[in-house]
Design goal:
mainly alpha; 173 residues; single chain
């Protein structure tokens, strides 16, 4: 087939002359059919897949943003709960410290009072013991002084001295 022949035939079909741009009917029909087939494949198969993928991406992006916002809100709630629990724990710790301080002060006061009572008991027992020992010492010393005085008087006088009843100052008056 000669291209001049086809172009001449096309000039009969198309009343205007486009020169080398005049289409060949066979090429035009094949082009239109292939375009239609390509368009149908794109429109019916590929474009819906592309649209579904784009919708999934859009949903993932928007859903991801929504989920991220929900997670942020949940994190804020959890943080607020954590802060509230931490404040309550601090309050409880302060209360426990105050109670322990009060109990410690009470224990110190009780120990101090017990110590004072023990001290008073020891002092009373010591005072009583000292009084007993003093009375016993006075009695022994009185007996010893009387014996020494008699011995000394016998040496000075040179003869035995008989014991005379002692006169107490309370008896004189």
């Amino acid at each position: 087939m000669d291209s001049t022949v086809t172009l001449a035939r096309n000039a009969e079909v198309f009343p205007f002359d486009l020169g080398p741009l005049n289409p060949v009917w066979a090429d035009l029909i094949i082009g239109v059919v292939l375009f239609a087939a390509t368009f149908l494949v794109l429109a019916k198969v590929i474009l819906p897949r592309i649209n579904r993928t784009l919708e999934r991406r859009q949903d993932a992006i928007e859903g991801g943003t929504d989920r991220a916002e929900e997670l942020r809100e949940q994190a804020a709630r959890l943080h607020a709960e954590y802060e509230a629990e931490l404040a309550a724990a601090r309050h409880d710790a302060a209360r426990v410290r105050a109670e322990a301080h009060e109990q410690g002060a009470a224990a110190i006061t009780a120990a101090r009072e017990e110590g004072l009572r023990e001290r008073e008991r020891i002092i009373a027992a010591g005072t009583a013991r000292i009084a007993e020992e003093r009375a016993a010492a006075e009695t022994r010393l009185g007996d010893d002084v009387e014996a020494w005085a008699r011995t000394l008087a016998e040496r000075i006088v040179g003869e035995p001295v008989t014991a005379r009843p002692a006169v107490r100052p309370a008896d004189r008056g």
